[in-house]
Design a protein that fits this description.
Largest sheet: 8 strands, mixed
Distance between the termini: 36 Å
Order of helices and strands: EEHEEHEHEHEEHEEEEEHEEHEEHEEEH
Radius of gyration: 21 Å
Number of strands: 20
Mean pLDDT: 93
Oligomer: single chain
Helix content: 25-40%
Strand content: 25-35%
Low-confidence stretches: none
Strand order of the largest sheet: 6-7-5-15-16-17-14-18
Number of helices: 9
Length: 383
Protein backbone atom coordinates (compact mmCIF):
# COMPACT_ATOMS: atom_id res chain seq x y z
CA UNK A 1 0.00 0.00 0.00
CA UNK A 2 1.26 3.47 -0.85
CA UNK A 3 1.66 6.42 1.48
CA UNK A 4 -1.57 7.99 2.77
CA UNK A 5 -2.85 10.84 0.62
CA UNK A 6 -5.03 13.70 1.80
CA UNK A 7 -6.76 16.42 -0.19
CA UNK A 8 -9.90 18.55 -0.25
CA UNK A 9 -11.73 16.57 -2.92
CA UNK A 10 -11.24 13.28 -4.76
CA UNK A 11 -12.63 13.23 -8.31
CA UNK A 12 -13.23 9.66 -9.50
CA UNK A 13 -13.09 9.41 -13.29
CA UNK A 14 -10.61 11.06 -15.65
CA UNK A 15 -12.88 11.48 -18.64
CA UNK A 16 -13.94 14.90 -19.87
CA UNK A 17 -16.41 15.52 -17.06
CA UNK A 18 -13.93 14.48 -14.38
CA UNK A 19 -11.21 16.57 -15.99
CA UNK A 20 -13.49 19.62 -15.98
CA UNK A 21 -14.49 19.00 -12.36
CA UNK A 22 -10.81 18.82 -11.40
CA UNK A 23 -10.01 22.01 -13.33
CA UNK A 24 -12.77 24.17 -11.87
CA UNK A 25 -12.41 22.79 -8.35
CA UNK A 26 -8.68 23.50 -8.40
CA UNK A 27 -9.27 27.00 -9.77
CA UNK A 28 -11.72 27.55 -6.92
CA UNK A 29 -8.84 26.96 -4.52
CA UNK A 30 -9.36 23.28 -3.65
CA UNK A 31 -6.63 20.65 -3.42
CA UNK A 32 -7.73 17.96 -5.89
CA UNK A 33 -6.78 14.35 -6.51
CA UNK A 34 -8.06 12.85 -9.78
CA UNK A 35 -8.15 9.06 -9.85
CA UNK A 36 -9.06 6.60 -12.61
CA UNK A 37 -8.60 2.87 -13.06
CA UNK A 38 -7.50 3.52 -16.66
CA UNK A 39 -5.83 6.38 -18.54
CA UNK A 40 -7.15 9.90 -19.06
CA UNK A 41 -10.09 9.74 -21.53
CA UNK A 42 -9.92 5.96 -21.49
CA UNK A 43 -13.69 5.40 -21.39
CA UNK A 44 -16.63 7.17 -23.01
CA UNK A 45 -14.63 10.34 -23.71
CA UNK A 46 -12.07 8.58 -25.86
CA UNK A 47 -14.87 6.96 -27.91
CA UNK A 48 -16.70 10.24 -28.49
CA UNK A 49 -16.81 12.66 -31.41
CA UNK A 50 -16.13 15.77 -29.34
CA UNK A 51 -19.47 17.47 -29.93
CA UNK A 52 -20.35 20.70 -28.11
CA UNK A 53 -23.98 21.04 -29.13
CA UNK A 54 -27.00 23.20 -28.48
CA UNK A 55 -28.87 22.14 -31.62
CA UNK A 56 -30.21 18.85 -30.24
CA UNK A 57 -31.58 20.19 -26.96
CA UNK A 58 -35.10 21.43 -26.30
CA UNK A 59 -35.69 24.38 -23.93
CA UNK A 60 -35.14 23.33 -20.33
CA UNK A 61 -32.36 22.59 -17.85
CA UNK A 62 -30.13 20.64 -20.24
CA UNK A 63 -30.20 23.45 -22.80
CA UNK A 64 -29.44 25.98 -20.05
CA UNK A 65 -26.46 23.84 -19.06
CA UNK A 66 -25.37 23.58 -22.70
CA UNK A 67 -25.47 27.36 -23.17
CA UNK A 68 -23.44 27.89 -19.98
CA UNK A 69 -20.99 25.20 -21.07
CA UNK A 70 -20.65 26.77 -24.50
CA UNK A 71 -19.58 30.08 -22.99
CA UNK A 72 -17.05 28.28 -20.80
CA UNK A 73 -15.73 26.23 -23.72
CA UNK A 74 -15.13 29.49 -25.54
CA UNK A 75 -12.86 30.60 -22.68
CA UNK A 76 -11.11 27.22 -22.70
CA UNK A 77 -10.55 27.59 -26.45
CA UNK A 78 -9.00 31.02 -25.93
CA UNK A 79 -6.63 29.40 -23.43
CA UNK A 80 -5.69 26.24 -25.35
CA UNK A 81 -6.63 27.13 -28.93
CA UNK A 82 -5.39 24.74 -31.58
CA UNK A 83 -4.07 22.25 -29.01
CA UNK A 84 -7.56 20.82 -28.44
CA UNK A 85 -8.66 21.10 -32.11
CA UNK A 86 -11.53 23.42 -31.15
CA UNK A 87 -13.65 24.20 -34.21
CA UNK A 88 -16.43 26.78 -34.20
CA UNK A 89 -17.90 25.19 -37.29
CA UNK A 90 -21.61 25.22 -36.42
CA UNK A 91 -24.24 22.61 -37.11
CA UNK A 92 -26.89 22.05 -39.77
CA UNK A 93 -29.99 19.99 -39.04
CA UNK A 94 -31.65 18.79 -42.23
CA UNK A 95 -35.28 17.84 -42.88
CA UNK A 96 -36.17 15.28 -45.53
CA UNK A 97 -39.80 16.36 -46.11
CA UNK A 98 -41.87 19.57 -45.97
CA UNK A 99 -43.68 18.26 -42.89
CA UNK A 100 -40.41 17.46 -41.22
CA UNK A 101 -39.13 20.93 -42.01
CA UNK A 102 -42.20 22.54 -40.44
CA UNK A 103 -41.70 20.49 -37.27
CA UNK A 104 -37.99 21.35 -37.19
CA UNK A 105 -38.73 25.06 -37.55
CA UNK A 106 -41.22 24.88 -34.65
CA UNK A 107 -38.55 23.19 -32.54
CA UNK A 108 -36.03 25.88 -33.49
CA UNK A 109 -38.48 28.66 -32.59
CA UNK A 110 -38.65 27.34 -29.02
CA UNK A 111 -34.87 27.17 -28.87
CA UNK A 112 -34.54 30.76 -30.06
CA UNK A 113 -36.79 31.88 -27.21
CA UNK A 114 -34.31 30.20 -24.84
CA UNK A 115 -31.26 31.98 -26.28
CA UNK A 116 -30.13 29.69 -29.09
CA UNK A 117 -29.12 31.10 -32.47
CA UNK A 118 -31.16 28.97 -34.91
CA UNK A 119 -31.35 30.18 -38.50
CA UNK A 120 -33.82 28.55 -40.94
CA UNK A 121 -32.20 27.76 -44.31
CA UNK A 122 -33.93 26.59 -47.46
CA UNK A 123 -33.09 26.22 -51.14
CA UNK A 124 -29.82 27.80 -52.22
CA UNK A 125 -29.01 28.92 -48.66
CA UNK A 126 -28.91 25.29 -47.48
CA UNK A 127 -26.63 24.21 -50.32
CA UNK A 128 -24.39 27.24 -49.82
CA UNK A 129 -23.68 25.86 -46.35
CA UNK A 130 -23.25 22.24 -47.50
CA UNK A 131 -22.82 21.97 -51.29
CA UNK A 132 -22.50 18.18 -51.27
CA UNK A 133 -25.81 17.40 -49.58
CA UNK A 134 -28.25 15.17 -51.46
CA UNK A 135 -30.29 17.17 -53.96
CA UNK A 136 -33.92 18.06 -53.37
CA UNK A 137 -33.90 18.49 -49.59
CA UNK A 138 -36.51 21.05 -48.51
CA UNK A 139 -34.34 22.83 -45.93
CA UNK A 140 -33.03 22.82 -42.41
CA UNK A 141 -31.79 24.96 -39.54
CA UNK A 142 -28.28 26.35 -39.13
CA UNK A 143 -26.87 26.43 -35.56
CA UNK A 144 -23.71 28.56 -35.49
CA UNK A 145 -23.20 27.89 -31.75
CA UNK A 146 -22.42 24.20 -32.30
CA UNK A 147 -18.73 23.43 -31.83
CA UNK A 148 -16.33 20.49 -31.75
CA UNK A 149 -13.14 19.52 -29.93
CA UNK A 150 -10.83 16.53 -30.14
CA UNK A 151 -12.01 14.88 -26.90
CA UNK A 152 -8.90 13.01 -25.77
CA UNK A 153 -6.69 16.06 -26.36
CA UNK A 154 -9.15 18.37 -24.63
CA UNK A 155 -9.47 16.13 -21.57
CA UNK A 156 -5.69 15.83 -21.29
CA UNK A 157 -5.24 19.61 -21.45
CA UNK A 158 -7.93 20.20 -18.82
CA UNK A 159 -6.24 17.71 -16.50
CA UNK A 160 -2.84 19.29 -17.01
CA UNK A 161 -4.20 22.80 -16.45
CA UNK A 162 -5.98 21.72 -13.26
CA UNK A 163 -2.67 20.89 -11.51
CA UNK A 164 -4.61 18.11 -9.77
CA UNK A 165 -2.63 15.12 -8.60
CA UNK A 166 -3.44 12.51 -11.22
CA UNK A 167 -3.49 8.83 -10.24
CA UNK A 168 -4.18 6.52 -13.17
CA UNK A 169 -4.31 2.74 -12.99
CA UNK A 170 -6.01 2.98 -9.57
CA UNK A 171 -9.33 1.22 -9.07
CA UNK A 172 -11.62 2.62 -6.39
CA UNK A 173 -12.81 -0.32 -4.28
CA UNK A 174 -14.62 1.52 -1.48
CA UNK A 175 -15.94 4.95 -0.57
CA UNK A 176 -14.71 5.63 2.95
CA UNK A 177 -17.24 7.01 5.42
CA UNK A 178 -17.19 8.31 8.98
CA UNK A 179 -19.29 6.73 11.77
CA UNK A 180 -22.06 9.27 11.05
CA UNK A 181 -22.14 8.28 7.38
CA UNK A 182 -20.29 11.22 5.83
CA UNK A 183 -17.70 10.66 3.12
CA UNK A 184 -14.07 10.61 4.26
CA UNK A 185 -12.33 9.60 1.04
CA UNK A 186 -11.86 6.51 -1.11
CA UNK A 187 -9.97 3.25 -0.89
CA UNK A 188 -8.14 2.17 -4.03
CA UNK A 189 -6.09 -0.87 -4.89
CA UNK A 190 -3.07 1.41 -4.50
CA UNK A 191 -3.95 2.94 -1.13
CA UNK A 192 -6.43 5.24 0.58
CA UNK A 193 -7.11 8.84 -0.40
CA UNK A 194 -8.61 10.89 2.44
CA UNK A 195 -10.89 13.84 1.68
CA UNK A 196 -14.16 15.31 2.99
CA UNK A 197 -15.62 15.33 -0.54
CA UNK A 198 -15.78 12.74 -3.31
CA UNK A 199 -17.02 13.50 -6.84
CA UNK A 200 -18.56 10.65 -8.81
CA UNK A 201 -17.46 11.42 -12.37
CA UNK A 202 -17.27 7.74 -13.28
CA UNK A 203 -19.50 8.11 -16.33
CA UNK A 204 -21.07 4.85 -17.40
CA UNK A 205 -19.84 3.25 -14.19
CA UNK A 206 -21.45 5.95 -12.02
CA UNK A 207 -23.99 3.48 -10.64
CA UNK A 208 -21.22 1.23 -9.36
CA UNK A 209 -19.44 4.09 -7.60
CA UNK A 210 -22.71 5.28 -6.07
CA UNK A 211 -23.29 1.76 -4.77
CA UNK A 212 -19.83 1.77 -3.15
CA UNK A 213 -21.01 4.82 -1.22
CA UNK A 214 -24.17 3.01 -0.17
CA UNK A 215 -26.57 4.89 -2.41
CA UNK A 216 -28.46 4.50 -5.70
CA UNK A 217 -28.03 6.13 -9.10
CA UNK A 218 -29.55 4.25 -12.06
CA UNK A 219 -26.87 4.94 -14.69
CA UNK A 220 -27.02 2.46 -17.57
CA UNK A 221 -24.73 2.03 -20.60
CA UNK A 222 -26.11 2.91 -24.03
CA UNK A 223 -23.86 1.56 -26.79
CA UNK A 224 -23.04 3.58 -29.88
CA UNK A 225 -20.86 3.07 -32.96
CA UNK A 226 -18.95 5.61 -35.05
CA UNK A 227 -17.61 5.04 -38.56
CA UNK A 228 -14.40 6.77 -39.61
CA UNK A 229 -13.56 7.35 -43.27
CA UNK A 230 -10.26 7.74 -45.03
CA UNK A 231 -8.85 11.32 -44.92
CA UNK A 232 -10.63 13.64 -47.36
CA UNK A 233 -10.55 17.25 -48.46
CA UNK A 234 -13.02 19.33 -46.46
CA UNK A 235 -16.28 18.30 -48.14
CA UNK A 236 -18.49 18.41 -45.01
CA UNK A 237 -18.20 21.81 -43.40
CA UNK A 238 -20.53 21.55 -40.37
CA UNK A 239 -21.90 18.89 -38.09
CA UNK A 240 -24.81 17.73 -40.24
CA UNK A 241 -27.58 15.48 -39.05
CA UNK A 242 -31.11 14.46 -39.90
CA UNK A 243 -33.94 15.93 -37.86
CA UNK A 244 -34.91 12.54 -36.40
CA UNK A 245 -31.62 12.47 -34.46
CA UNK A 246 -33.21 14.61 -31.73
CA UNK A 247 -36.05 12.13 -31.28
CA UNK A 248 -33.60 9.22 -31.04
CA UNK A 249 -31.57 10.98 -28.34
CA UNK A 250 -34.73 11.48 -26.26
CA UNK A 251 -36.05 7.94 -26.78
CA UNK A 252 -36.30 5.43 -23.95
CA UNK A 253 -36.14 2.45 -26.30
CA UNK A 254 -33.52 -0.19 -25.64
CA UNK A 255 -33.59 -1.34 -29.27
CA UNK A 256 -31.12 -0.28 -31.94
CA UNK A 257 -31.81 3.20 -33.30
CA UNK A 258 -29.78 5.02 -35.91
CA UNK A 259 -30.00 8.45 -37.48
CA UNK A 260 -27.41 9.96 -39.82
CA UNK A 261 -24.88 12.33 -38.26
CA UNK A 262 -21.96 13.36 -40.49
CA UNK A 263 -19.08 15.72 -39.78
CA UNK A 264 -15.67 16.50 -41.12
CA UNK A 265 -12.63 16.83 -38.87
CA UNK A 266 -9.53 19.00 -38.88
CA UNK A 267 -7.42 15.90 -39.58
CA UNK A 268 -9.41 14.94 -42.70
CA UNK A 269 -11.49 11.84 -41.89
CA UNK A 270 -15.28 12.14 -41.80
CA UNK A 271 -17.00 10.82 -38.68
CA UNK A 272 -20.34 9.06 -39.17
CA UNK A 273 -22.86 8.31 -36.41
CA UNK A 274 -25.12 7.89 -34.61
CA UNK A 275 -26.42 4.64 -33.19
CA UNK A 276 -27.97 3.91 -29.80
CA UNK A 277 -28.93 0.66 -28.10
CA UNK A 278 -29.01 -0.68 -24.56
CA UNK A 279 -27.13 -3.98 -24.54
CA UNK A 280 -25.20 -3.66 -21.28
CA UNK A 281 -21.43 -3.53 -21.73
CA UNK A 282 -21.46 -5.85 -24.75
CA UNK A 283 -18.54 -4.80 -26.97
CA UNK A 284 -19.47 -7.14 -29.84
CA UNK A 285 -19.16 -5.55 -33.27
CA UNK A 286 -22.62 -4.99 -34.77
CA UNK A 287 -22.73 -5.21 -38.56
CA UNK A 288 -26.42 -4.13 -38.69
CA UNK A 289 -25.61 -0.96 -36.73
CA UNK A 290 -22.64 -0.05 -38.90
CA UNK A 291 -24.52 -0.78 -42.13
CA UNK A 292 -27.36 1.46 -40.97
CA UNK A 293 -24.89 4.25 -40.24
CA UNK A 294 -23.34 3.97 -43.69
CA UNK A 295 -26.73 3.91 -45.41
CA UNK A 296 -27.96 6.96 -43.52
CA UNK A 297 -24.79 8.91 -44.24
CA UNK A 298 -24.92 8.23 -47.97
CA UNK A 299 -28.55 9.37 -48.07
CA UNK A 300 -27.40 12.72 -46.70
CA UNK A 301 -24.15 12.92 -48.67
CA UNK A 302 -24.20 10.69 -51.77
CA UNK A 303 -20.45 11.18 -52.43
CA UNK A 304 -19.75 9.02 -49.37
CA UNK A 305 -20.87 5.94 -51.30
CA UNK A 306 -17.45 6.01 -53.02
CA UNK A 307 -15.42 6.66 -49.87
CA UNK A 308 -13.69 3.96 -47.84
CA UNK A 309 -14.45 3.53 -44.16
CA UNK A 310 -11.15 2.71 -42.48
CA UNK A 311 -12.46 1.72 -39.08
CA UNK A 312 -15.38 1.71 -36.68
CA UNK A 313 -15.30 2.14 -32.93
CA UNK A 314 -17.81 1.95 -30.13
CA UNK A 315 -18.41 3.54 -26.77
CA UNK A 316 -20.95 3.46 -23.97
CA UNK A 317 -22.93 6.58 -23.15
CA UNK A 318 -23.93 6.95 -19.48
CA UNK A 319 -27.73 7.00 -19.68
CA UNK A 320 -30.15 8.11 -16.95
CA UNK A 321 -33.88 7.45 -17.41
CA UNK A 322 -34.96 11.09 -17.69
CA UNK A 323 -32.04 12.04 -19.98
CA UNK A 324 -30.63 14.57 -17.51
CA UNK A 325 -27.28 14.15 -15.76
CA UNK A 326 -26.89 13.93 -12.00
CA UNK A 327 -24.98 17.00 -10.83
CA UNK A 328 -24.35 18.20 -7.30
CA UNK A 329 -24.36 16.99 -3.69
CA UNK A 330 -26.14 13.78 -2.76
CA UNK A 331 -28.28 14.52 0.31
CA UNK A 332 -28.27 10.83 1.22
CA UNK A 333 -24.49 10.70 1.71
CA UNK A 334 -22.91 13.89 3.07
CA UNK A 335 -19.77 14.79 1.12
CA UNK A 336 -20.68 12.72 -1.96
CA UNK A 337 -21.19 14.73 -5.15
CA UNK A 338 -22.24 13.43 -8.56
CA UNK A 339 -21.23 14.56 -12.05
CA UNK A 340 -22.33 11.75 -14.33
CA UNK A 341 -25.14 10.47 -16.53
CA UNK A 342 -24.71 12.97 -19.37
CA UNK A 343 -25.38 10.30 -22.02
CA UNK A 344 -23.88 11.45 -25.34
CA UNK A 345 -23.60 15.09 -24.30
CA UNK A 346 -20.86 14.79 -21.69
CA UNK A 347 -18.13 16.43 -23.77
CA UNK A 348 -20.26 19.49 -24.42
CA UNK A 349 -21.73 19.73 -20.91
CA UNK A 350 -18.48 19.04 -19.06
CA UNK A 351 -17.37 22.64 -18.53
CA UNK A 352 -20.72 23.77 -17.13
CA UNK A 353 -20.88 20.68 -14.93
CA UNK A 354 -17.40 21.28 -13.53
CA UNK A 355 -18.10 24.97 -12.97
CA UNK A 356 -21.37 24.31 -11.11
CA UNK A 357 -19.86 21.53 -9.05
CA UNK A 358 -16.95 23.72 -7.98
CA UNK A 359 -19.45 26.34 -6.85
CA UNK A 360 -21.35 23.73 -4.84
CA UNK A 361 -18.16 22.32 -3.31
CA UNK A 362 -17.09 25.77 -2.11
CA UNK A 363 -20.50 26.74 -0.72
CA UNK A 364 -21.28 29.38 -3.33
CA UNK A 365 -24.62 29.95 -5.01
CA UNK A 366 -24.59 27.96 -8.23
CA UNK A 367 -25.05 29.81 -11.50
CA UNK A 368 -27.85 27.43 -12.50
CA UNK A 369 -30.43 25.79 -10.26
CA UNK A 370 -29.24 22.25 -9.54
CA UNK A 371 -32.71 20.98 -8.56
CA UNK A 372 -33.45 19.35 -11.97
CA UNK A 373 -30.15 17.46 -11.70
CA UNK A 374 -30.65 16.20 -8.12
CA UNK A 375 -29.06 12.75 -7.77
CA UNK A 376 -31.80 11.58 -5.38
CA UNK A 377 -34.65 12.21 -7.84
CA UNK A 378 -34.84 8.52 -8.75
CA UNK A 379 -36.48 5.71 -6.80
CA UNK A 380 -34.94 2.27 -6.54
CA UNK A 381 -37.57 0.93 -8.94
CA UNK A 382 -36.39 3.17 -11.80
CA UNK A 383 -33.37 0.99 -12.53
Amino acid sequence: MSKRLTCDVVVVGAGMVGAACALYAARAGLDVVLVDRGPVAGGTTGAGEGNLLVSDKEPGPELDLALLSGRLWHHIAEEFGEFIEYEAKGGVVVASSPGGLAALERFAAGQRAAGVVAEPVTGDALYALEPHLAPGLPGGVHYPQDRQVMPALAAAHLVRASTARLLTGRTVTQVLRTPNGAVSGVRTDGGDIHAPAVVNAAGTWGAELAALAGTHLPVLPRRGFVLVTEPLPRLVHHKVYAADYVANVASDSAALQTSPVVEGTAAGPVLIGASRERVGFDRTFSLPAVRALAAGATRLFPFLADVRATRAYLGFRPYLPDHLPAIGPDPRVPGLHHACGHEGAGIGLATGTGHLLAQALTGRTTELDLAPFRPDRFTEEVA
